# Entry
Amino acid sequence: MCNERERLIGYVYDECDDGERRAIEAHVEGCGTCRTEIGGFRRVRQDLLAWDVPEHDSVWRPFAPARIAPWWRDVPGWALAAAAMAMFAVGAGGGVVTHALVPHDAAAPAIGSNAPAPVEVTAADLAAFEARMLGLIQQGTTASGPAIQRVSMTPQERADFEAEIMQRVLDLQTGAFRDHDETWRVIARDFTQQTARVNRLSDQVEGIQSFMQSIGYQGR
Amino acid sequence: MMRTDEELVARATAGDLEAFNQLVTRWERPIYALAYRTLGREEDARDVVQEAFLRAYRGLRGFKGQAKFSSWLYRITLNLCRDWIRRERRAPIVQVPEGTDPMDLADTHAAPAESVEDLVARREMSAAVARAMAELPEEQRTAIMLKEYQGLTFQEIADLLECPLSTVKTRLYQGLSVLRRRLERRQAEEATLRRATWESSS
# Structure
C-alpha cells in the first residue's frame, strides 16, 4: 500500500469501492506514514477552499433574435411590386398637388378639396413633371426657409430599399421569364427601368410634401 | 420545471436562442471560476469565458452528446486558457492583494460573522494557495482544479483530458503532495514570524 500511494487519492476523495476502502482503512491503522499522508491531504484540501474567485457581473450578453436581413426581405415579391405601383400612384397624385403649389395656367384643385380627377400620364408628362419637381426641390433646399428633412428613412436606407425593390422585381421577372425569349427580358429590363424612374419621382414628391409641411403650406 | 442540459442543448441546436441563454446562465460561474483560476486575471478570464460560450454556440451542431455538456465546455475553456497562456508567453499570473487595507476588506467583503482578522487571514491563505497552484506543472494544476473546484469525478477528468484514470490519480497525488509541502512550509514560516514578533514586543 505504501508503494502505491495513488490509491490513497481514491480514499481521500471517496472514490473507491467498499472493498478498497476497507483495505485502506485496515492498512492505515498500522501505518503511521500513510495516516500522516491522508491527514496532510485533507488539510491541503481544506486550505484549497480558501482560494476564492472575485465576484463578477455576467460577462455574457444574452442572445436576442437578430434581424440579419432588412425587413423588406420578408415581404413577398408581389407585395413589393404592388408597393412600387402604389408609389407610382402616389407620385401621379402628387402631380395634382403640385398644381396647387407651382404657377400653372389651369386652375388646380386645392389640397383637401375634391378628389383629383383621373389623370392620364404620358412619358412626356412624366419628364416635365420630373423637371418641375427637381426645380422645386432645388429651390427649397437653397431657399432661406427650412431645409427639406426626411424623417422616415435615412438616404442609405432609402437607397437600399429602392435597390431591393428593383432587385426583387428583376428577380421576379427574370425568374419567371428565364426560359422564354429575349423579348421578355427586354420587357423585364424596361419594367425595371420604369420602376426605378417611378421610385425617383415618388422620392421627389415626398420631398416636396415634406418641404410644404416644413413651410406650413396649407394650400391655396 | 428545470430542463436538463441535454434538453437545452437539443433546443439550442434547433435554433432556440433562449435555451442557449439558459445554458450560459447555468454554467457561466463555474466556467469563469475555472478560467480565472487558470489565468489568474479577471479581464483575461472574462475574455476567455466570452470566447468559450461563443465557440460552444458555434459548435453546438458538432456536439453529439458523447460527453456531458459541462465537460465539453470545460474542455473548450481549458483549450482557450492554454492558447491564451501560450500566446501571452507567460506563466499564469496570480493576483495577490498587496497593501490590503483590512478596513476596506471589512467594508466590502466581510461576511457579518467574520472578523477582520479572519478575513485578512482568509485572503492571505487564498493568495498563498493561488501562488502555490501557479507553480505547479500545468497537468497537475488542471487535474486539481477540475477535481477540487469543478467537482468532476476521476473518470470525467480522464475523459476530458484524454488520459488514463491512473494518470489522473497520479497527477492529483503529486500535485497535492507539492501543495501540501509548500503550504505547510508557509504556515511554519508564519508561525516563526509571529513568535519572533511576539518575543520582540514583550
